[in-house]
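Hi L., both proteins are below.
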Amino acid sequence: MFRSSAIQQQPSIGLKANKAPQTAHHLDGVVQEVAGAFSFWQRPFPHPTASKLSVNSAATIRTGISPPYLITAVFLIILVSLTGCERVVTGSEKAMVLAFSEATTDNLLAGLTTNDYTQFSRDFDDELQAKLPSADFTTLTQDVDITLGSYLSRSVTQVTKADEFYVVAYQARFDQTEAVTITVAFHDTIHSIATLTIDSAEMSWSAFQNR
């Protein structure tokens, strides 16, 4: 299981545009780029002389950018995450997505809060069920409890379409931190969950990371 203490052990790679995801594992990289772009704003910045921008192998933003370049850097990150077949969803299409995604995400987070794996994984597709078994879920809940605390609330920050997936990004509040990005990807037809990530300054977790 990936823990916050392991974040710095991951190798860095340069920013580059990814092709549209062909599998849930590839989709996970896109999901984390979107999550990183949103959580970027909550990250503490070091001394203004630091100017190195890197993205780790899980595509989670770890940065030290001087303030004059902040807006440009965020724009580039978002631009990269929206290349290929990915686009922002708005209007009636967004409302359609939220009509099914919100109840599913409610159930997901309720299962996370009560440590109920059956409830948490109810809407997973087969690949995610296999990738995130009950034993790993127990470790995840322990990490969340220790690092973030109890889940309190969330709001939708953006909905995107990536190939055959809808990706919903949330800004979530926990009782130990108020800046947590939760990103959930849904199949566009059957609406099951293909992957999810939890990202904050305190911990970064992905369902499809190497464990």
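That was the first. Here is the second:
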Amino acid sequence: MDSEIGGFATVAHKVLSDILLAMKIIALAALSLDGYMTRHDDEGNSFTSGVEKEFFARVLNTFNCSVFGSATFDAAREQILAAPPARRLRLVLTTRPEAYAPVHKHGFLEFAAGPPREIAEKLRERGKARCALLGGTRVFTDFLEAGLIDEFWISFEPVFFGSGKRLLEGRLDRALELLGIEDLGGSVLVAKYRVPGNLSAL
């Protein structure tokens, strides 16, 4: 019986890996040099420079979906709702999807609850093969722990804050591989890292 259960688990893991194989999830974040995504208690990325905002807007157009938490949505709510419908699906993760029903627009701006692997599988089934993960801390951490992040693209702004929201939380021990560094000008650098050992690499 134990061997049968073990065999089933192996097959199930392979099936899930195959489902996610063609899907690429890249985490995008801007950080201060001391590792904060926000300035102190501020929400959002108001501290980022013009060159970083231009970079973010440019690369975001290369994805056909973006995933982020409700706090990230709430911080940029007016900007997101005022923007014209994009070809990219915006999926907001929340424990209360029903609370956002008035602004839900199927295929454009959606709200959902569920564990990362379930979310990723459903996106893959809908043909969303290239997904930008935009935070916040809990979303980045949950997707990394689930083995779903292929790459991190980190924009480093030349500032120190001393406090704010971190990129990740909890006790983690993951090594990354540097893919390259892009100089945006204005002392802003983007470092791109691959995450070895994620599900799509198995």
